Amino acid sequence: MSIVISNLTKLYGAQKAIDGISFEAHDNEIVGFLGPNGAGKSTTMKIITGFLPPDSGIASVNGIDVAQDPIATKKQTGYLPEGNPLYYDMYVREYLTFIARAHHINGHTKNRIEEVIDMTGLRPESNKKTGQLSKGYKQRVGLAAALIHDPKVLILDEPTTGLDPNQIIGIRQLIKDLGKNKTVLFSSHILQEVESICDRVVIINKGKIVANDSLNNLRLLQSGGHIVSVQFSKPAEISLLQNLPDTESVNKEGEVYLLKTSSPDALKKSLLEFAVQHHLDIISLQSKSASLEDVFRKLTS
Prior knowledge:
By secondary structure, the chain is an alpha/beta fold. It is 36% helix and 29% strand. The strands form three sheets. The protein has a six-stranded mixed beta sheet, with helices on both faces. A four-stranded antiparallel beta sheet has the order 2-1-4-5. The longest helix is centred in the middle third of the chain and has 14 residues. The two termini are 31 Å apart.
């Protein structure tokens, strides 16, 4: 496992920023790290990347304890912090050369810089100073710097903050591509973005982990299952719908019947057969479960 967090605690005076949290991120997995402002996300990321020491507990990257050997873990970790600190008076290649030298990349520095420039889509703006770039391209420079030493683990803290829709789509696709051969811990307040990118979600609230599961499982757990809604051309007997296979309960809202189930596809098939048997036309048929926004609000409100 690429990232292992075990009973991690960090205090700021009397306040517990994170309180005994534990979770893991596996190889070639994109994990969404969510929580309201002040929940402990950035503190956790700074500990994993060796910028902050924990007060207790262990954070390890590829089997190496960050507190015991922070240099070794930094060699395997790429970090794009929320603030994305850049030297605005440096040109793009000059800045990336500086970062490459800090990582002691020798022999093929120029080739690697050109690789990450192409990888992050920086080529059109690569001859400018970083201070002259738009917010989107500055984020790309920060991401290129995090990738320059080809780390196995990427820690991305709000990488799309302040970007326009086209820039966001570009960064999202890049993160998806990177997740095919790297472990990515990805923090964002844009929940639709997390749904489109991440394999699994960890939610932290007030310094404690309140959820750690796949998106589908979280939606099911918080909604209590799937709901299939159906509207017929004329009223149907609720008792007959209740007897359909895979139906747990039936409610009616206006002309729409709401059937709770754990097997929505099987229930939809049964409803089609039911409609034929009872000479009913189906006006609408759809399934739904709790959105990530619903889950987030329920767990952090």
